[in-house]
Sequence to fold (259 residues):
Amino acid sequence: MATAAAPPAPSRIAVVTGASSGIGAATARQLAAAGYRVVLTARRKDRIEALAEEIEAAGHKATAYPLDVTDREAVDEFATAFRTIGVLVNNAGGALGADPVATGDPDDWRRMYETNVIGTLNLTQALLPKLEASGDGTVVVVSSTAGLSTYEGGAGYVAAKHGEHVLAETLRLEIVGRPVRVVEVAPGMVKTDEFALTRFAGDQDRAAKVYQGVAAPLTADDVADTITWAVTRPAHVNIDLLVVRPRAQASNTKVHREG
Ligand SMILES: NC(=O)c1ccc[n+]([C@@H]2O[C@H](COP(=O)([O-])OP(=O)(O)OC[C@H]3O[C@@H](n4cnc5c(N)ncnc54)[C@H](OP(=O)(O)O)[C@@H]3O)[C@@H](O)[C@H]2O)c1
Fold:
């Protein structure tokens, strides 16, 4: 039977992007509880500072660093703060709009590509030497089931998440033999406070409809648990791709709704 890795040394650092809400915040909490010194990044400084304080008050180690993942200069500057890093969780991202290809806004498509794909590229490029220097690094890419198959109205987001999926797959090929694992976690429907609201530009009714009648969508904690499990496997075990959906969702388009 495989056993979990020994707890990380207290100096092991886990950087989590998009830690100001949802899956990123839950992942930061769980990695901190698992023994990592977590570095929380996102654009909203007040939120990551409050979360870092909460994690510290629980007896764990956390610091906040405001960062826009699309700003390469700022990302490079951020990377200079570290000698080694154990884990990078590329979680920052999300969807904008749900229009068909015929009428989708090219600007939304661009912004989704910038945040989900270029953001992940920026952090991964900047921190790869530090992950390697740790002797046992892990890059996690939080993609989506949208990175594996499409659905009507989803093309802009689906294209961006396919980009992230390909980035993870290709990186794994390119760095094989070096001490860095590449783990992709692809969640299905997760009910977080902001994901659907951001997608629908603050429209509460449209956001609520995403989860309407679904008895138990995944929670941010469910996905954080999956990420933490993958990261804490022994160093030689690479969880390539983990697809996690609620029981009520059989595919991107096949969802059981009650009522
Ligand atoms: N919820 C779902 O159903 C679902 C399903 C599959 C995959 N996912 C993926 O999981 C990830 C997290 O989703 P979530 O549900 O937790 O959504 P969320 O609550 O909206 O979180 C998105 C996070 O990304 C950060 N972010 C966005 N743009 C950024 C930028 N330019 N630079 C830095 N940070 C940025 C946001 O922080 P700031 O605004 O403070 O910068 C926020 O912390 C996303 O990649 C999403 O695509 C979500």
About this structure: The chain has a mean pLDDT of 96. Residues 17-18, 20-24, 42-44, 68-70, 91-94, 115, 119, 142, 144, 187, 189-190, 192, 194-195, 198, 220 surround NAP (CB under 6 Å).
